[in-house]
Amino acid sequence: MTQSGETEGTLIKNRGIVNLVLKGNTFKNNPVKLIAVLWGEKGQKPENNTINHSGKIEIVQNLKLKLMY
Asked: Residue 37's Cα: distance from chain center in Å?
């Protein structure tokens, strides 16, 4: 992805997704603080991604979920 997203936002909104593979991507010149927040407790991790001037990929162990009934 190049030059996508909003300055204050997260580029990839993946909260609540349990099975996610973020692999082999190039993120370049995206004006965001975070590319994605991955759920480490579920084994999500970035692999072989190239990041240039695009924030970071954050991994958290306990991700808060919003449940809707």
From this structure: 4
